[in-house]
Amino acid sequence: MSDATEPNLFVIEFHRFILSDETEPCCFLYMKYFYIAFFLYSTLSFSQSIFENDSILLWSSKRKLEWRDFRSNNKVHEYELAQAVITPSLIVIPRRISSTFDLGKLKVAAVVIKDKSWFKKQDVNIMIHEQGHFDIAEIYARKIRKKWTENLLKNELNLDSVFNIYKDIEDEHWNFQQEYEV
Length: 182
Known about the structure:
The chain contains four helices and six strands; from the N terminus they run βααβββββαα. It is α+β, with helices and mostly antiparallel strands. The strands form two sheets. Strands 1-4-5-2 form a four-stranded antiparallel sheet. Strands 3-6 form a two-stranded antiparallel sheet. α3 runs antiparallel to α4 (159-181). It is elongated. This is DUF922 domain-containing protein.
């Protein structure tokens, strides 16, 4: 099937959640299945409008961040001295949606959410630093793709493994982003 006849891409962003030490294990199990159900529902019901309105930038080796990608006017951050903030995210993109939902078709991409990214002053060193955040997101997207492919080849890719791989690597990604900031 050619790309011209493929259905539109559907996008869902997995959001990080934090469980306190007091959280019961059954609560985690409940959240896990909630995420899986939400993922399947969202995949079938959200459209590609996030791409059509130019609100995100997909990572590409041919396209670096530009000042015009920082569109938020809300220049508040927990680190008061921040001169710029980008919002890098990892999103899952199924290429085709069907009733059988072939997990082998899942893709993950690093993106920047333009409307949540801002800068206070244009400076080449700030841009280099923010591009570093975006590049880190791409590294972790590649880690997820690699692990999903390995599990697919071993015939071990299922909803649980998709969720667990994503969550584990996204946790690593978040931790590394924080270390990069220091």
